[in-house]
C-alpha cells in the first residue's frame, strides 16, 4: 500500500495516515465494539485527468475573450475508503476525498481545504426481518442508467446525499425507500449558539420551513428472466423563496416524478435494450413580481430509448447501437409569464456525462438527441468507442440547457432555430501494469443554426465556430 501511496503528495499521504489512525483509535477505544483488524477493509483510488477545451463560446463576439474561449487544467481526485464490520449484520463505511486542481493553491506554501468526507454511513442488514437493510448517513445514491439519480463519478468531486435509505430485497423484487436533505437552512443553529430562543424563535421556524428534501421510492422487479422492470416515484419538496424558476432544482416547488425503466437482453444476450419514461407534475413559483406563491402547474415529461447488438463471435466483439432521447421544454419560459403551466423537464440529480455527449454541453432538458454508436473490445482490458449525436431543441421557445441542468445559452429574441448541432466523440481505454487504467477521449461539436443565430456580430451577421475538447486520464486503484 505504501509503495502505491508514494505517488500521492505529502499532504494527501498525511491525510490518509491520520484518518486511518483516528478511525482505528476510535474503534479500539470502544469497549462495546472491540477492534479486530481482520474486519477492517482499506482501499482507495487516485485519479489524475488533464482536460483542454477550445472555443468554448462558439466564437461568440460578445464573449469575454481568450480566457473564456479556451481552457486547460489538470485535476486530481484521491479517495480513501475505510470499512469496518464489527458483526456480520453491521457495517461502518467512511470515504475521505481530496479534490484539487494543479496550481490552484495561492502558492507552493498554500494549504486550501480541499478534503471532505464524500461518504460516511452505518449500515444494518436484516433489520427486524430478513432482507431489510438500513443505511444512515452521507452516501451515494444512483439507479439504472443514472438519468435522474446518479453519483456523477466523472467529475472531480462526485455527488453524495445526506439521508436514510431502507432497502428490502426479495427474490422477485426489491424496494428502496429513501429520504435525503439537499438543502438545510438551520446550519447556524446546529451549534446552539442561541440557547434561550432555540428552537422557538421565529427565525428558526422560518429557516426550518425552507429546507429542500427529496423522497424516493424505487422498485426493481426481477421476476421476468433477462429483464429488469423498475418503476419509481420521486418527490422534490422545496419551500424556499426566490431564485430562478429555470435553475436546476429551483426553489419553492413541489415536483413529483413518476418513472419507469425497462432494461433487458435477448438473443443470447447479443441484443441489449433500455427504455425509460418520466412524467412530472406538481407546482412551482414563477417569482414574477416578487410573488412567492406556487402559481405554475408542472406538466413535463421525458423518454430515453437505447438498443444495441453485439457480434459476440466476431473479433473485438463489436457493438452497434442507436438511441433517442427527448425531454420537454416550455415556450413561455423566456417571456416572464407567471400564469399557466411549467413544461420544462427537471433532470433532478443525474449523471449526464456520456449520455448526451462526452463534452457535457447538453443535458436532459428541452432536448432531442439522436445518437449512433460503435464499440469494440480488442482485449478484455481495452476498449474503443465512437459516438455521433444530433441535437435539437424540443421547444424553440425555451433555452439550451447543459449537463448540470443550468442554462447553456438563452435564446435571443427571434431565434426560433431548433438545431443545436452535432457532436462526434471518440474514446479509448486500456490497462497497464495490471492495475493502472489509462483513458483518452476527444470530442468535436459542430455548431448548428441555433448557435449561429445567437451569435450576432456588430453588423447583425450571424456566425459560429465549432468547439473541441479532449482529455487524458490515469486511474490507480489500491
Descriptive notes:
- By secondary structure, this protein is mainly beta.
- It has 2 domains: 1-111, no CATH class; 140-477, Porin (Beta Barrel).
- 9% of the residues lie in helices and 47% in strands.
- It contains 5 helices and 21 strands.
- It has helices spanning 2-5, 10-29, 66-69, 202-208, 449-454; strands at 40-54, 71-87, 90-101, 115-124, 132-139, 161-169, 173-183, 212-221, 227-238, 253-266, 271-284, 296-310, 319-327, 341-342, 367-379, 382-392, 400-401, 407-409, 419-432, 436-447, 467-477.
- The strands form 2 sheets. The chain has an 18-stranded antiparallel β-barrel. A two-stranded antiparallel sheet has the order 17-18.
- A hairpin with a 3-residue loop joins strand 6 and strand 7 (173-183).
- The chain is globular.
What are the main properties of this structure?
2 domains; Porin; globular; 21 strands; single chain; 478 residues; two-stranded antiparallel ribbon
Provide a quick synopsis of the model.
This protein is mainly beta and 478 residues long. It contains five helices and 21 strands. Helices cover 9% and strands 47% of the residues.
Per DSSP E runs of 2 or more residues, the count of β-strands stands at 21
Kindly provide the name of the CATH class of the largest domain. Answer: Mainly Beta
Q: What CATH architecture label of the largest domain applies? A: Beta Barrel
What structural category arises from helix and sheet content?
A: mainly beta
Run of helices and strands: HHEHEEEEEEHEEEEEEEEEEEEEHE
Biggest sheet details: 18 strands, antiparallel, barrel
- Compute the average pLDDT: 86
Number of domains: 2
